[in-house]
What we know:
The protein has seven helices and no strands.
Amino acid sequence: MKRYLLQRALERLPEDRRERYAQEWEADLAQLRGIRALLWALGLRRAATRLARTFGHQPKRTLLPYAPVDAVLFAAAYSLAYQLRFGSDVPAIYRDLYWNTLPFAVVAGLVILALCGAYRTSGPLMLAKAVVVTTLALESYAAIVSRPSEFAPLLPPAGVLALFTLLAFPALLATRFRASARA
């Protein structure tokens, strides 16, 4: 396991520096035993990434593989927002609105995340902006698509939209935090 972690850390370095650090890190690892060796090897990948940056080498990293996770998070946040707002007794008119707007909440969320640049770099402010814009787009979409009567559009309740925002943002932030902790 320790050798595997060492190899993964060396892959982060520029090729011209790998041999030197491989020898040095092998010597360091040989002096450590047990849990200390494992903890040292676990921290080595992150240290190698920082070291590579000091050499001007940026490891290729994209958050695009998180798009399916983001889709599930948007769907879960929207569903949970309805569940928390109404419990098990969702009125029929809002149930229809939910099923009509759920696909848009997922697709619009992914598109807006991409447009905001959240798959290139990710920060809390960028994610908050993307979630708020997704919420506003969801409300606008519902106003355009759903017209149960001829005059007034049916919008998701304000509580559902607020809960969606409050649930989606921390969930997305947690996935990005885990992604940056692995780097």
